[in-house]
Every structure is written in C-alpha cells, then in structure tokens.
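YM 10:42: Aminotransferase class I/classII large domain-containing protein sequence, as discussed on the call
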Amino acid sequence: MNPGPALIRGSCLQPGVLASIKRPSALRSISSHMPQISMDALNPTFEKVQYAVRGELAIKAEVLRDKLKEPNHGLPFNKVISSNIGNPQQKGLDQPPITFTRQVAALMEWPELANLAPGVFPKDVVERAKELSEEIGSVGAYSHSQGVPFIRKNVAKFIEERDGYPSDPNHIFLTGGASAGVSLLINMLISSPHSGILIPIPQYPLYTASLAQHQGRPIPYYLDEANGWSTSIDSIEEALEKAREDGTVARGLVIINPGNPTGALLDESTQEKLVQLCEKHNLVLLADEVYQNNLHRPESHPFTSFKKIVSKLESPVPLVSFHSISKGVSGECGRRGGYFECTNFPEDVVALLYKMVSVALCPPLSGQIGVDSMIRPPKPGQESYELWKKETDTIHAALASRTQSMSKRLNALPGVSCVDSPGALYLYPQIKLSEKAREAAKAAGKEPDAFYALALLDQTGICVVPGSGFGQKEGEWHYRLTCLCPGVDEYVGKLERFHLQWVEKYGEE
Ligand SMILES: Cc1ncc(COP(=O)(O)O)c(C=O)c1O
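YM 10:58: structure's back
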C-alpha cells in the first residue's frame, strides 16, 4: 500500500529508495486505516457557502480564456471580457496602479533601492518610505496584531479630517482587505442559532457567505429599484417583523454605501433614520464603505460616512465602518489591505476583537502600507502630487463616463432598465425575460438570468454575474456588470447586438 505523498515528503529518502525498503508493520497498519476524506465528513457550513462573483460564469470564462490560446479555437470572439468582478488591475481591465503607492511599496520592500537608484524616486516618496521604515522595520516581520500603531494613527487622522469628529487609533483594526473584518464581525455577532443580520437585497455575496459559514440567519430587506435602489426604513421594519415571527433575533444591520451591486448612495436624512432605527431595535450597524471614493457625480451625490452621522447625532449605536484599498482609485485588490473602525464599542469588546485578530498574528504588511498610501496621498506642493492628481483624476473620469454611457445604452435596449449609478463600480440592469426564454432556461436546468448570462458569455466573451448571485425580488431578473472595462464602445456594442438577437429569438415579455 502507498504510504501517501505526505509520508514520502516527510522522509528524507527519495521515493525510489523508499519503494525498495520493506515497510514496518506499524506503518502498514496506520496506512490501512487511513481515513478517506469525503464531503459528508466535513464541516457542513462549507457546502452552504455560495459566492457567485467567482461562480459558474467566472469558471466558464477561465475555460474559454484557455481555449482562446488554441490556434483554431472556433470561438466567436477573440477575448474574454471580465465584467464580473470589481478587480480593477486584473489583466484585461488594466487600471494602472497609482505610481505613488507602488513607489512607496517598492522602497518598503527593498530600502536599498533609494541609494542604488538615486534621483529615480521623488523626494516625498523617499521621505515617506524612510518614515514608515523607522516605524515598521522590516516588512518581513509580524506587526502588532491590530496593525502598525503609526498607520492606525494616520487612519484616525484621515477619519477626523474626513468627518470632523474624533477617532481613536486603538479602536481601528487594520485587516487583510475589508472581507476579513466583515467575516470576523459577523462571526462575533452570531451568538446563538437564532441570531440574524439584516442584509440588503441585492447584496454583495460576502454577507450571505459569511452568515452561512458562521451559522447566522440572513434577514433580507429589499432595496427600492424604482427609486434608484434607495434604502427604505419601512422595508427594514417589515423584515424585522418577519424575523421576529420566525424566531430570529436581529443583531446587526448591514448597509453597503455606496452600494454593490446597485451603485446607490444614501442621503444624510436616510442615514439619520437608519441610525435611529438601530437605536430603536438595539442593532449593531455594519457600514460597508469600501466604495466611498468611487463617486461619479459627487456634487449631487456626495458620500457621508456613518461615523459622521453617529457622531453628529451623539448616538450610542455601536458602529463598525469598513474601508479597503481594493476599490476607490487605488484598486490594490491583491495586496489585501483595509481597516475597520469601531465606534461606541466597550473596551472589553475591543479587547476581545484584539484577542481574535491575534490568533492570525497580523494583517499583511503590504496591505497595511497600501492603507497608509491611500489615506495619506501626496499633498499639493510635494513632488509626487501632480502625477498623483493626474492619475486619480483620469481614473475617476473614466469610471464616471463609462458608467453614464453604459447605463444610457442599456436603457435604450428593449426590455432592459438600468439605474444610472452615482457610485461604486457597477451597474445592475433589470432584464425582462419572456416565457419562452424562461422555459428554455428551465429545460437547461438554469435560473433564467444565469441562462441569459451564459449565452452572453458563449456568444460574446463578456462575463457578467447573474442577479441570482446577489438576490432579487421573485420573478425579476438582473445581472451585474462592472464599469471597469476599457473600450466601452466595442464592449457595449457586442452586448447590444447579443441582446437584440436574444429578443428576436425569445421575444419580449
Ligand atoms: C461591498 C464590498 N465589501 C467588501 C468587499 C471586499 O473587499 P476587500 O478586497 O477589501 O476584501 C467588496 C469587494 O468587492 C465589496 O464589493
């Protein structure tokens, strides 16, 4: 019997040598009782987790991408367009990284570089890296589990300048992306099998996935598409009422602002009502604000943080605010950087969180440094400022113009309606699907919107995520596409041609 690759790796013998040795009987009996790994012997919550952003469509897109490498691939397109994921620097989307961020990162990785390449790095970059190095030392060492204290102080200053209210660095946790913080907080709030968290529908599937993993109950409340995907207090009250009837104890309210997948932005008066609702129902407010810097029409649709609202109202509502380097104009998804700030949290709860993050030792240093560059960009008058301004303005302008032109063209298609998102990186159009299309989907064993999205991928190479991955009202169909793809004319042109052929084939609803 084969002792298994782990045993071969564990020994200092070559596999060939091992084969010629008669194995001791103890080893033989261990190996004959080696447990088989099988799905029914694993944590059942793993199977319940769903994450559509990297689901069936994304997997098929990868297969097609590989096929395109074959000389006679026979596909009706020459490239796969990844419109499924908000990963700005992904190959094909190619949002350039901010030079300042990368220069600081380069000098942090290899401080010698500043001396080896004199004059290459702007003065403010060299000074910034020196300052960070003095605080951090080597990026190869574990940091404080909550994140480098100096960087947390800088985050607190950023929050104070943004909101005009104090922020405590000891209540800030640097994280490996916002996801790590969201999962931790959801885990913490699920105190019994009856605990539930209010989540918007449509939602970013991190929330349902984390709830499934930590055995919490999702309490869905619906966003109002007819009113630009606004958040209605009544719909949350209704959801709470229904939860109570089901014996679910609501522990928290998730708000994604600006929204994913909707791109909607909350106005301050709604935010105030939401804080009051949390007070009334004793809820922890989980404010996912990772898109706070993705504003396409900031004059008419500005961003206000929940920290500012809670502080202004002097509300006792416990609030956790999440931010990330993955979005905005930084787009540094792969560095895994973010933070959360706890407001109105008692010290013993903060200490408990600290204990829990200590188990994973520390967030990645590359991500922590990325956070520092995001919240401390160059200032006017510094050598890096002009380039930083040009790069960030270009990204903002491209996102705003793509979003506007895509929503306009989608709205002109028969059976399609699309809210012109004022923020984030996505559009979430609704598509009417005829009975004939729904029947064809049923015959193929697919949800109607997944059937539509699969056909779109097969015929054009455009990969989107069906609405069923984010949630939608019964009998409605959507898909999410990102506004990150360059070459909008060619891309939307393909989408339009596909949709018109679809309508010709299946008819309108
Ligand atoms: C609303 C929302 N929250 C959190 C995240 C997670 O981001 P991060 O890369 O910081 O983990 C995303 C990623 O797309 C998101 O859309």
